[in-house]
Amino acid sequence: MILIEVIKQHFGEFKGETVWQWTLTNDHGMKMSVLNFGAIVTSIETADKFGKFANISLGFSSIDDYLAFSPYFGAVVGPVAGRITKGQFELEGEQFQLSINDGNNSLHGGKANFSKRMWDVAIEEQPDQIIMKFQYQWPDGENGYPGKIETKMSYILNNKNEWLIDYEAETEKPTIYNPSNHIYFNLTGDNGSTVLEHQLKVNSEQYVPLDGETLPIGEIWSVKDSVFDLREETKIAEIVSSSDEQIKIVGAGLDHAFILKHEKEQPDAILVDPKSGRCVEMETTSDAVVIYTANNLASKFNIAGVPVPKYAGITMETQGLVDAINQPDFGDIVLRPGEKFVSRTTFRFTVDGRDK
User: Fold this and answer.
1) What is the C-alpha separation between 99 and 152, in angstroms, rounded?
2) Alpha-helix residue ranges (DSSP H) falling in the chain
3) What is the Cβ-side half-sphere exposure of residue 158, based on CA atoms within 13 angstroms?
4) Smallest Cα–Cα separation from 41: which of 168, 201, 156?
5) How many H-runs (helices) and E-runs (strands) does the chain carry?
6) Where does 247-336 show beta strands of DSSP type E?
7) Digits of tens for pLDDT over the chain (356 positions)?
8) Given phi > 0 = left and psi -120 to 50 = alpha, else beta, which region is 96?
9) How far is CA 169 from CA 135, 166, 333, 342, in A?
10) Residues 211/217, Cβ–Cβ less than 8 Å
11) CA 21, CA 50: separation in Å to the nearest integer?
12) What is residue 98's DSSP assignment?
């Protein structure tokens, strides 16, 4: 029997500090490898319906590739995930300008966001789970964000084949906070393949339409009678080939936020690869999930020597709505002194034996 174990290995160097990789293994042989740089998940290994293990997430094997390219593979992003229009917002009568790193806008926290920081890590091994505890102190004014933000995060791998992410944060000044993890799943476990044959289900009746800069237009639309109605399992190939203007505007695919219904005893989203039988069920306390079908990854870099194709992976970025600070009906992402930001996301890895 495989016992819960943790292996720590040297992964590289970053600005004079050692980048370590921890590989966590549960009793069922599921493995997850994680860095202290960007809290990056470099790989997740799960079994298919034939018992064969393979990596089902996109990631690099060297720190140089993580520094050279910016697909945010497996990284925590923030302090605010997604785009903020022109990197600007007003809070309690004061105007703030964030660093610009995506055209005219700020993306995922600006330049050198959470994904490019060294996190303090502590490991706690328990009989039925392993807990990786992360800490980082975001300085007041960094990238334009007001307030020193004390951030804490935990990755938990348990014997239910679940990966849990717990987010916590406190601040000394009013600020905005809306982090996420940018994991890309490809359940085939086959390097260089696409997710076009995957089936996706999202328990959502509303989504956020975008403009040509991939910014919210400020409205919330019903999924009814559109390609965005994913309340039943839908093949990714059918979604990305749609003539819907919202699909075409982001490069023929999804890069949209879905508002989640959070119905009891129902996952918020399910991703299935019929061929391998691998399945991911996602549940979150966040208001929304951004689904991105890797529309813009094609041939920009290699993984293990294999060029990365368009649609190489799919994200489930759990968070509050994108650009909420500038949109009156998108909810509250302001964090104030005396408050604590708390959020949990669970990815449950199962095997579905159906042939489709």
Assistant:
1) 23
2) 63-68, 236-240, 245-248
3) 11
4) 156
5) 3, 30
6) 255-260, 269-272, 278-284, 288-292, 302-303, 306-307, 314-319, 334-335
7) 566 899 999 999 999 999 999 999 999 999 999 999 999 999 999 999 999 999 999 999 999 999 998 799 999 999 999 999 999 999 999 999 999 999 999 999 999 999 999 999 999 999 999 999 999 999 999 999 999 999 999 999 999 999 999 999 999 999 999 999 999 999 999 989 999 999 999 999 999 999 999 999 999 999 999 999 999 999 999 999 999 999 999 999 999 999 999 998 899 999 999 999 999 999 999 999 999 999 998 767 899 889 999 999 999 999 999 999 999 999 999 999 999 999 999 999 999 865 54
8) beta
9) 10, 10, 12, 7
10) yes
11) 29
12) P
Cα–Cα dist 21/6, whole Å: 10
Amino acid at 247: I
Amino acid at 135: Q
Lookup: tokens for 309: 């194709």
CA separation, residue 337 to residues 87, 146, 174, 285, 332 (Å): 23, 12, 6, 22, 15
Q: Report the 10 Å Cβ neighbour count for 356.
A: 11
Give the pair of three-digit tokens for residue 261: 């219904």
Tokens 């509250």 appear where? 332
| ∠ CA 113-119-125, rounded to 5° | 140
Q: Is 188 left (phi over 0), alpha (psi -120 to 50) or beta?
A: alpha
252 Rama class: left (phi>0) / alpha (psi -120 to 50) / beta: left
Cα atoms found within 13 Å of the Cα of residue 103, Cβ hemisphere only:
10
Give the separation between CA 51 and CA 65, rounded to whole angstroms: 31
Coil, helix or strand for 239?
helix
User: CA 337 to CA 315: how far, in whole Å?
Assistant: 32
Amino acid letter for position 307? P
Catalytic residue set: 182, 317
Residue type (1 letter), 17: E
